[in-house]
Structure formats: C-alpha cells, structure tokens
Amino acid sequence: MAVVAVGLPGKVDKTATERQYAELCSPVAEPFMPITLIIIAITCIVSFMAFKNSRLMNDLILWPPAIARQREYHRLVTYGLVHADFGHLLFNMLTLYFFGQVMEVFFAARLGSFGFALFYIGGLVVSILPTYLKNRDNPNYRSLGASGAVSAVLFSYILLEPWQRIIVLVIPMPAIVYAVLYTGYSIYMDRRGQGNINHSAHLWGAAYGVAFTLLVEPRMLQHFLDALLNPSFR
Fold first, then answer.
1. pTM
2. Model pLDDT for residues 139-190, shown as the tens digit of each residue
C-alpha cells in the first residue's frame, strides 16, 4: 500500500454532491473512542514486538496448514498485526490514519461505535480467504500485513470522495485515478504470480470495501456516480 497522504479540501461553494457528501458523513453520534488510532496503536506495538521475536511472528502470521490442520483460525485476523519490515508497517498505518478516521465516522453513524472495527476486521478476513483456500496445503506459504484491510478502507473512502487529491509517495492524483491504476497493477501482478506481495489480498480487500459500504449505505452508489460525473478537484 503506497498512499501516504491525503490532500486537504479547499474552500469551494457547496454543490449538490458536496451537500450529499456532508449528509452521508454526518454522524448520528460521535464515536466514543478513536477506533482508527486504537487499531494503529495495537498494530504498531505487535509489529515492533514481532520484529524482534520470531516466535511471536510465527504464532501470528498466516500459515495455511496451521489453520487447516490445527484450526488456528485466529491467524485469519492476526496476520494483519504483523508486518515484514518498518516500511511495510509505515505505509499501511499512514494510509489507515488518513482515510480511516473519515470512514470511522461514516460507519459509526450506521453501525455504532464499533462499526469501523467490524468493517476493518472483516476486511482482514475476506481479503485473505482466497489466498488461504488456494494455499491450504502449502507448508511453504506465509502471508502477513494489513494491506488487504487498508485497501478496503481506501476504496470505501473513494466511493465517498472519488476526486479528492491524494498523494501517492510524492505524486498527487485524484483518488479515482489511483483506484484504476491500483486495480490494474494488482490484477497484472497477481496474474504474473511473482514477488512477495499478496496482490490478491489487495484486490479482494478493495472489492470488500466497496461491497460492504454499499450494503451499509445503498445511497452511496448514487452519490459516487453523481460525484464521478461532476468532478471537483481539491
């Protein structure tokens, strides 16, 4: 996951699309605890501990035979708490920080204070299931990192603000452009099957993020289409 910042909205006149955005984001009640920050804190603490503790890393990482043979189903979630290195952790947590707080308010308004936590954990599970099923009996396969769930958060946000300017490393671009490039690249790399990055989890995470958001708030589809047809660059 390479998104590391989001552009701040400028002062613009309220359009119908923007008013709809404000309505969709208006919380029924403020979340009573910062779920996004709690997820980031827990993930960073566990990841840093696992960097220096190989046993902890092995106990949490997604290793398919441990699930299929020993029924260690917790690995379908805990793999998202450990990362390959500091850069891997940094990119994921920065992306989660910038986009997660917006979506936390969105889901809290519809599912309660723990709505975003439910969405995020679901992203971890759904994004890794196809990989797990494909490698169920492969003792040499391992996967780790929160990229699938972070992809879910990012693509959920893109439904809300498709033309928002985001920073991909040092390159500014509209969120929807990044979504198209990201999806195309992930499909290409997944078909090549090379490298150590689980591109399949990125794709399934993105698909889950879109599907879950539309299921929770069906009006989001019309909002997304209206926003797409009426670009408002920020």
1. 0.85
2. 999 999 999 999 999 999 999 999 988 877 778 888 888 888 877 877 776 6
Q: What is the DSSP string of 129-141?
A: HHHHHHTTT-TT-
As given in the structure block, the two tokens for residue 21 are: 């955005």
Q: What are phi and psi of 62, to 5 degrees?
A: -75, 110
On the 0-12 / 13-18 / 19+ scale of CB atoms within 10 A, 215 is exposed
What distance in Å separates the CA atoms of residue 178 and residue 137, rounded to the nearest whole number? 35
Integer Cα distance of 45 and 33 in angstroms: 19
Beta strand spans in 124-222 (E): 165-168, 171-174
Residue with tokens 């590391």: 4
Task: Indicate the pLDDT class of residue 91, thresholds 50, 70 and 90.
Answer: confident
Indicate the DSSP class of residue 7.
P
| C-alpha span between 88 and 4 (Å, rounded) | 12
For 53, the token pair is: 């503790």
SS3 211: helix
Task: Please state the separation of Cα 226 from the chain's center in Å.
Answer: 24
The pLDDT tens digits for 182-218 are 778 777 766 776 555 687 898 999 999 999 999 999 9
